Amino acid sequence: MTRRGNLLEMNFPARSPHAISPPAGLKEALGVTPKETLSSVEDLLVLLDSEKAVGAVQPDFPALAQIAVRGIIVTASGDQCDFVSRFFAPRIGVPEDPVTGSSHCVLAPYWAGVLGKNDLHAFQLSKRSGELFCTNAGDRVKISGRAALYLEGTITA
Predict the structure, then answer these.
(1) Core-most of 14, 94, 101, 127, by most CB within 10 Å?
(2) How far apart are CA 141 and CA 105, in angstroms?
(3) Who contacts 86 (Cβ-Cβ below 8 Å, separation ≥6)?
(4) Phi, psi of 75 (to 5 degrees)
(5) Where are the chain's structural domains?
(6) Exposed e or buried b for every residue in 16-47, given b needs 16+ CB within 10 A?
(7) DSSP per-residue string spanning 32-86
């Protein structure tokens, strides 16, 4: 982790998604019809029509937990930013994660390709919410945001 002004930046491997047919039960579990569904192996990326649609999703968590993926990322272009998202992972005990770094490893390459730019401004629309700044750097994604730093240390071998 490095400091970038008043932001903390982390560097992760990119996970570019590819289009798939929506798995059985996804539409019913999310209560919305996906515009497009993609997979990044561990997670599904579900594209919706608008920021409002992403914010309005009210999943059936037991039904969502039956879909054989780690998590479901719901996204759309943003009104005041490049894109918005939410992350649901009830299968692994996380109904909705407030701000998810790993989902942005999928979102940044996807939206960089759609928008034709590598520096992206994002909001995760969970109840707690979070603002992120992502850089698509080929096989890496740099994710920056404001955080409450509560511990610093050095690990030695």
Answers:
(1) 14
(2) 6
(3) 54, 55, 57, 73, 74, 75, 96, 124, 125, 126
(4) -145, 160
(5) 2-145
(6) bbeeeebbeebeebbebebeebbbbeebbbbb
(7) S--SEEEE-SSEEEEE-S-HHHHHH----HHHHTTSSSSEEEEEEE-SSSSEEEE
pLDDT in tens, the chain (157 residues): 787 778 787 899 999 999 999 999 999 999 999 999 999 989 999 999 999 999 999 999 999 999 999 999 999 999 999 999 999 999 999 999 988 889 999 999 999 999 999 999 999 998 888 999 999 999 999 998 887 667 778 888 8
* Rg of the chain on CA atoms, in Å: 15
β-pair type (140-145, 94-97): unpaired
Report residue 99: phi and psi, to 5°: -145, 120
For residue 92, the tally of other CB atoms under 10 A from its CB is 10
Q: Which structure tokens are listed for 23?
A: 């798995």
| Residue tagged 């920021």 (tokens) | 51
